[in-house]
Amino acid sequence: MTSLGRFLTVWRTVVVRDREIIDGVVHPNHRGPSPELSQALHEWAGSYYWAEEDGAGRLVLIRTLAPPRKEKWWLHTLLFVVSFATVWMGGALLAGAQLTSAIPLAPYLARVITVVPEWSELGAGVGLDFAVALMGMLLAHELGHYVLAKRYSISVSPPYFLPAPFWFFPVGTFGAFIRLRSPVVDRRQLMDVGAAGPWAGFAVAIIALVVGLQRSEVLAEPGVTAQLIMIGDQRLYLGDSLVITWARQWIVGEGTVVLHPVALAGWFGVLVTMLNLLPLGQLDGGHVVYALLREHQRSVALFCWIVLLIMGFQFFYGWWVWAGLVLLMGGGRIGHPTVMDRYRRLPKGRRALGWATLALLVVTFTPSPFVP
Q1: Which own/partner pairs from 111-117 qualify as long-range (CB within 8 Å, at least 24 positions apart)?
Q2: CA atoms 103, 108, 114, 115: torsion sign
Q3: Spatial distance between the Cα atoms of 330 and 107, rounded to a whole number of angstroms
Q4: pLDDT-above-70 percentage for the chain
């Protein structure tokens, strides 16, 4: 702190776990900043940002006091590889490869060895495309959170990917998550970390959706909905969101579309974005709404949670499952925990980002993901 103390008129220092947070007011002669302060900030062993919405010259400095944590990269890599494999197999199944439908755990490994030659060029190639698209979306989502957390010197874990048995859940994964080990300082940090994941994942999902729709088949016959996938000889009709409707009408036009597996990966990417943006607990949407509205997030969350229960009766019973999972993940709470300095005002640019992120929830919202 001695290298920067001469530039500050007043400051306060807070040490939380393994981080030192310094909130100071820069001397008027060094605001801008001055060349001397710029050099000192360049040499600062941590991160910083200006918080002038709380007054001219407000500067927040953050640095880590503990040595870097040794991550179990082997575990994260293994989970990613296994998840990629199960998603690949699921994509091959969706493409029509003859994979087993119900496998006890004991003979599973032996069955995998014998099933690989059965994939055919269609199953293996399209399954790989599906895995690249879906895993790319999940990776982009989690890296969005990870990079922004690192930007604010927050201790954060690498992504944990969750493989799923493809013969039971053809998508092949239950998603991914990261862990924030350090408390969030203010609502600016919360907004940036919370919104980065959905936007990054959504960008990859849209690319997959556009590419996949160009490779999808259009049926002449009308369908229950405008899109479906084939699992064996069975049709599974998929619901619509505004962004899916716009993309389909722009690329395909009228007709019922049998989604190519890459388009299906994009569809799932849009769905995952929407689920994460619900303003509940510590979902990404909970982060964004708390950053915008502070304690009022709890009222919004309660309203949203009740709406999910009603939608379970009206549209899709899976909303009850999601409502229960949110309670389970939040330890029975749907309100968002506070940040260290919840009274620091949110910059105008971050407020615009917050409302744009909630608009993203609206255009990705799918009332009934799966249509009977």
Answers
A1: 115/89
A2: positive
A3: 37
A4: 89
- What is the model's pLDDT at position 290? 96
Residue-wise pLDDT tens digits, 15-71: 988 889 999 999 999 988 999 999 999 989 889 999 988 888 999 999 988 888 888
Q: Of 306, 256, 259, 251, whose CA–CA distance to 278 is shortest?
A: 306
Does the reported pTM lie above 0.90? no
Token pair 């506070």 is found at: 338
- Reported residue count of the chain is 372
Q: How far apart are CA 68 and CA 335, in angstroms?
A: 32
CA torsion angle for 43, 49, 55, 56 (degrees, to 10)? 50
231-269: burial string, b at 16+ Cβ within 10 Å, e else: eeeeebbbbbbebbeebbeebbeebbbbbbbbbbbbbbb
Name residues whose C-beta falls within 8 Å of residue 113's C-beta, 6 or more positions apart in sequence: none
Nearest to 368 by CA among 279, 237, 280: 237
Q: Which two tokens stand for residue 169?
A: 């859940």
Residue 248 and residue 257 in contact, taking contact as beta carbons nearer than 8 Å:
yes
Bridge partners of 47, per DSSP, are 62
Minimal CA–CA distance to 191: which of 339, 16, 362? Answer: 339
